[in-house]
């Protein structure tokens, strides 16, 4: 199976891309299965956090060019080659990328669709599409300038150069850099922490952060204030504050 879903941890689903012989390069099968899994997990109330990773010491080395070389513009539309990226961006639940090895091209964009990125020290990120006659098509040209500014983003995209995880962290692309081989372990630690938080508040945070990036500051602040106030109509808000005052651990039920 090209994508495996592991539910060993309560409230957490781990999606692993299983194509190590091709360094987990994205082909149509992988993208379709991954999109199906993300969409299913997004609607599963027992899942609070999704972790995305790759097998064999790689995240995703790019898109499978052998499959893409003869595609036409119409093929991309007909085959819905961008569906997996949309599924990740539109998922209301937090998604954490655990990156080891390469996250290049579509693999880099896949990671950039996630809410947090934990990377092993030797992991490398980049958008090398320009070197094969195309350009990023799943968010690279839009996300990277917003993350690091247009000048540094243009350098990466126009040269196709890759950056190692420590530099990616300095550029704002990565949430945390860890020892090689421990990215998934650390991502699971973060997932467990987030899964223990009130689900409605977690969802509101993600929604406001994402929507606010595309709004003028005053509009974004108004959106934040509205979401903040609406949470006072939830049982989890009452439980959280009463638990704090009573010096006990809260039990959040997503209500």
What does this structure look like?
With 255 residues, the chain is α/β, with parallel strands linked by helices. The protein is 47% helix and 15% strand. It has 12 helices and 9 strands. Helix 1 (28-42) links the parallel strand 2 (12-17) and strand 3 (49-54). The mean pLDDT is 95.
At a glance:
With 255 residues, this protein is of the alpha/beta class. The chain has twelve helices and nine strands. The strands form two sheets. It has a six-stranded mixed sheet, with helices on both faces.
Which terms would index this structure?
47% helix, 15% strand, six-stranded mixed sheet, 255 residues, 2-enoyl-CoA Hydratase, Chain A, domain 1, 2 domains, 9 strands, alpha/beta
Task: Map the helices and strands.
Layout: E1 3-6, E2 12-17, H1 28-42, E3 49-54, H2 65-68, H3 73-79, H4 83-90, E4 95-99, E5 102-104, H5 106-112, E6 116-120, E7 124-126, H6 140-148, H7 150-159, E8 162-164, H8 165-171, E9 176-178, H9 183-195, H10 199-212, H11 217-230, H12 235-245
Parallel strand pairs: 2-3, 3-4, 4-6, 5-7, 6-9
Antiparallel strand pairs: 1-2, 7-8
Helix pairs in contact: 1-4, 6-7, 10-11
